[in-house]
Amino acid sequence: MKHIFLILFLLFNAFIVWFAWGNFSNPVTYTCVLNHNNYTLSLGIFVLVIALFANIAGFLYAVVLKSNITDLCKAYQKKNENISVKSEADSAKIQVLEAKIASLEAALDAALNK
After folding, report:
1. How many domains does the chain have?
2. What domain range includes position 105?
3. Cβ-Cβ contacts under 8 Å for 111 (sequence gap 6 or more)
4. Along the 114 residues of the chain, how does pLDDT read in single tens digits?
5. Do 49 and 30 meet the contact criterion of CB atoms below 8 Å apart?
6. Torsions phi, psi of 29, nearest 5?
7. For residues 2 and 8, what is the distance between their CA atoms, to the nearest angstrom?
8. HSE (CB half, 13 Å, CA atoms) of 66?
9. C-alpha closest to that of 49 among 4, 16, 94
10. Cα 53–chain centre separation
């Protein structure tokens, strides 16, 4: 599945570069939201800048997701270790109780045989 996503990522970015290359000579007017000035620049450059920002945002989102998944895996592993330790402690208690029962049975048999 990882390879499919990588191939799709490369294909989409190749298409964006191809589109930007074909529209490099087409001017586009951009109005800035902050200062309301109009800027004229190449459509190809505009598309490449937007694609660059989108790729950076996707990368940062993936980093955050990976960090969250790593934290969840560590918590799950710690929970499993605690369950394992508790299971071993319970097993040790059971062995001690079985030994006590065996000694009580032996003492009872000895008392009954006298």
Report:
1. 1
2. 2-113
3. none
4. 889 998 999 999 999 999 999 999 999 998 888 898 998 999 999 999 999 999 999 999 999 999 998 988 888 888 887 777 777 777 778 888 888 888 888 888 887 787
5. no
6. -100, 130
7. 10
8. 6
9. 16
10. 22
Q: What is the 3-state secondary structure (H, E, C) of the chain?
A: CHHHHHHHHHHHHHHHHHHHHHCCCCEEEEECCCCCCEEEEEHHHHHHHHHHHHHHHHHHHHHHHHHHHHHHHHHHHHHHHHHHHHHHHHHHHHHHHHHHHHHHHHHHHHHHHC
Rg of the chain over Cα atoms, rounded to whole angstroms, equals: 34
Q: Which tokens is 101 given?
A: 């029962």
Q: Which residue matches tokens 């270790």?
A: 81
Task: For the full predicted model, state whether its pTM sits above 0.70.
Answer: no
Enter the tokens of residue 65. 């997701």
